[in-house]
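FORM 7B: Structural annotation worksheet

SECTION A. Query
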Amino acid sequence: MTDQLLPPAPADPPAPAGDPQAPDAVQPPAPAVPPAPAAEAVPGTEAAPAPDAAPAPPPRTPLRERRAARAAVRWGLAVILCAGLGGGSAAYLTSLHREDVPGLGTKSDGRWDYPALSLPALREGEAQPRDRANTAGTHFADPRDLLLPAPAGAKPDKALPGGVVPVDRYVAEYGKDDRAKLRDALDVTGVRQITARGWTAPDGTHARVYLLRFPSAGYALSFLNSDLGVKTSGPAVEPNGSSLSTSDQGWESAPAAFNAANAFVEKAPFGARQVRHGYLRVGDTVALVITDHAGTTPAVPFRQTMILQGQLLA
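SECTION B. Predicted structure
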């Protein structure tokens, strides 16, 4: 019969346990492996680093700190540069004369440009006129070496070149009525020598300096006070060409290194040329300094001449 039932197909055999080819097979869990026991640390020893471990890189400086460091270096270099430039500039300026620096030039007060002065050398055992041991106040140096030199640019006076002059040349500096009396006084006091130098300064001032050397300081003092009549208020004997001399008020700051120092100026009204004159006494020597100028005679160079001549005598 065609309708006979066929026998059922045999079932597939079960896949063996653990076969990976089975599509729906479930892998059994791997057996747990116990962790290796940690090595016990030995007291007093440190664990050595792994031989292949690379050293850790140094920590990087933050950007803000690097910028601050660079700024500090730049400012430090700027300070050093400025200090160097400032020091060099200061050294340059201090080496200049004040008149050579723009804006710092000082207007001249009229002083004359005298050369450097130096005292003549004395022989051994010779004292200065103001030494206590030199009771007579004697100047042992040659009087010609004690005369003040002419300032720079001055025109020398041919009549007074800086040497010895006769008594008549000296008394000619005074009025005609006083010359005979002064000549007799110089004879009585025994003046030993008169030296003189004259010049005309670049500003037109005519200047003369006379040194009268006496036997001792006493004779010099007598001639100054008694014969010339020099007092603080004014002299009794006027220079030639001067009408009335009075004390020079600007002479108050004169050095005190001289035995006597009196300065006078011709009082207005005066003639075509005003006269300034003064006396110095140091030891056995009396100095006469006289200047005149058309119109008003400058005071500053006159006082300057007085001071410098006194320093040579002291």
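SECTION C. Observations
The domain at 143-313 is CATH 3.40.1000 (Protein Transport Mog1p; Chain A). Residues 61 and 67 are 10 Å apart (CA to CA).

SECTION D. Sign-off
Analyst initials: ____
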